[in-house]
């Protein structure tokens, strides 16, 4: 369903059962990994989100056939070919995934082209780590007005790499490049998010040799050939945290089918500290507001196993209802509190500071970035007209509108469909009161 604007009448607790599918931040990378195989791959639990459609379009442009049957994708890379620059630019949209095509395309075709990269506007989001990794593997990188062109005249070779920060994308870049490179790769300061471990599981199924040490070091032994995989994607941890916070903020009770405890323990600790209740079942997790006051918390976002940066936005909405002062220190992205402006318009009492208000100073502290939020509660939010700025910020605006007194009009909600499968249907299932406009 293509929806641009939604009018929400707030005040109804969300109640019911909805399904969590595969993680956006794994599925899209798993689709790229299929490029590396000599035979077709099958990926299950693929959500219907626009980021998946963007990657599907890019794969098809490169000759990969992609068939969807329910929530299963079959990807066949038998006829991989070079795509035209202008079509790549037209298809990439605002996704950042194209950068991850580079390693596999350099292996398969000896060349790759990527457009100017988009993604959510939550900071500079540079790609310097990625380009450095590719150069270290032996790629020749050429910046053109239309994008970045790469070649690998002598193929890619393994290398010793140390990331300046445990970047998720750069770690994936190393994995997708190293598995078929000549010789060994040692990656230090790697990200070890569950989505990365699931990508490693997929690559291992394909025939790759990858070892993860306890100290964020990943060792990869390059192999000559890889085959297709068959895999059920890890559930979406970000979608899970978002709906859990929506239940807490609205005083609701939701069962999130497919959510699992082991990958959510850090979130669950904070959810409980804030006064939320949860129950773990074999087939999912129930999250609810048990009544009484919500409690303020102090949270610092971090790389895994820390509290994810993608969890703070809906949590901030719930914290406007907590009785006292909460602090959220964002240490992953330098500019991820832009979404709070709309919450303040809706009556929230939130101040953003450039100081590190957490237990440790982060790399943004001395650089004047507005990266710590102080949230005073409890407040009653009231309806407002809001324009969605980015994926997670947009979802938090939706949550705020659901808790608010009166009516809110939220525009640009299409962005939310980048990462939340059928969120309109899910809102209906959970009993929200709203109308949509195309
Ligand atoms: C992934 O982004 C996710 N996106 C993000 O989810 C998520 O917030 C992030 O990881 C952290 O978990 C996808 O998986 C598609 P990073 P990624 O490289 O890989 C800096 C969402 O809402 N950096 O770990 O792009 C960067 O600026 C999205 O689902 C460089 O400086 O994140 C940031 O400060 C948003 N140079 C930090 O590293 C680089 O070349 C971490 O970014 C790359 C990153």
TrEMBL record:
EC number assigned by the record:
2.5.1.7
Record-annotated Enolpyruvate transferase domain positions: 8-427
Q: Which reaction does it catalyse?
A: phosphoenolpyruvate + UDP-N-acetyl-alpha-D-glucosamine = UDP-N-acetyl-3-O-(1-carboxyvinyl)-alpha-D-glucosamine + phosphate
Broad EC category: transferase
Sorted alphabetically, the Gene Ontology BP terms of this entry are: cell division; cell wall organization; peptidoglycan biosynthetic process; regulation of cell shape; UDP-N-acetylgalactosamine biosynthetic process
Query: What does it do?
Result: Cell wall formation. Adds enolpyruvyl to UDP-N-acetylglucosamine.
Name of this protein: UDP-N-acetylglucosamine 1-carboxyvinyltransferase
As recorded in Swiss-Prot or TrEMBL, the protein's gene is named: murA
């Amino acid at each position: 369903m293509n929806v641009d604007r939604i009018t929400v009448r707030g005040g109804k607790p969300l109640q019911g059962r909805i399904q969590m599918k595969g993680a956006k931040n794994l599925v899209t990378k798993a689709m790229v990994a299929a490029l590396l195989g000599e035979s077709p791959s099958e990926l299950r639990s693929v959500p219907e989100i626009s980021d998946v459609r963007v990657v599907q379009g890019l794969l098809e442009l490169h000759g990969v056939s992609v068939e969807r049957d329910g929530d299963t994708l079959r990807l066949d890379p038998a006829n991989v070919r070079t795509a035209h620059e202008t079509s790549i630019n037209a298809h990439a949209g605002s996704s950042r995934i194209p950068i991850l095509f580079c390693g596999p395309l350099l292996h398969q075709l000896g060349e790759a082209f990527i457009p100017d990269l988009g993604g959510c506007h939550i900071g500079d989001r540079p790609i310097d780590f990625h380009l450095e990794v590719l150069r270290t593997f032996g790629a020749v990188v050429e910046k053109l007005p239309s994008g970045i062109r790469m070649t690998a005249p002598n193929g890619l070779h393994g290398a010793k790499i140390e990331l300046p920060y445990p970047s998720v994308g750069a770690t994936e870049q190393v994995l997708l490049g190293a598995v078929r490179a000549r010789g060994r790769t040692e990656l230090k300061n790697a990200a070890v998010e569950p989505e990365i471990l699931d990508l490693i599981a997929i690559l291992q199924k394909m025939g790759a040799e990858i070892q993860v040490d306890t100290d964020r070091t990943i060792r990869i032994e390059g192999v000559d050939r890889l085959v297709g995989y068959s895999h059920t994607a890890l559930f979406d941890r970000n979608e899970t945290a978002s709906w859990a916070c929506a239940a807490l903020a609205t005083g609701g009770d939701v069962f999130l089918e497919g959510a699992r405890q082991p990958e959510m323990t850090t979130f669950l600790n904070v959810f409980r500290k804030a006064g939320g209740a949860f129950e773990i079942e074999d087939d999912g997790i129930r999250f609810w507001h048990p009544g009484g006051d919500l409690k303020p918390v102090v949270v610092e976002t971090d790389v895994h196993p820390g509290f994810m940066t993608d969890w703070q936005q809906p949590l901030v909405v719930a914290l406007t209802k907590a009785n006292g002062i909460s602090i959220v220190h964002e240490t992953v992205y330098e500019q991820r509190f832009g979404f709070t402006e709309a919450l303040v318009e809706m009556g929230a009492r939130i101040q953003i500071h450039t100081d590190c208000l957490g237990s440790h100073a982060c790399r943004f502290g001395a650089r004047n970035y507005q990266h710590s939020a102080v949230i005073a509660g409890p407040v009653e939010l009231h309806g407002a007209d809001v324009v969605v700025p980015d994926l997670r910020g947009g979802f938090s605006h939706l949550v705020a509108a659901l808790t608010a007194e009166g009516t809110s009009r939220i525009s640009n909600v299409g962005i939310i469909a980048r990462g939340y499968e059928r969120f309109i249907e899910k809102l209906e299932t959970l009993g929200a009161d709203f109308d949509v406009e195309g």
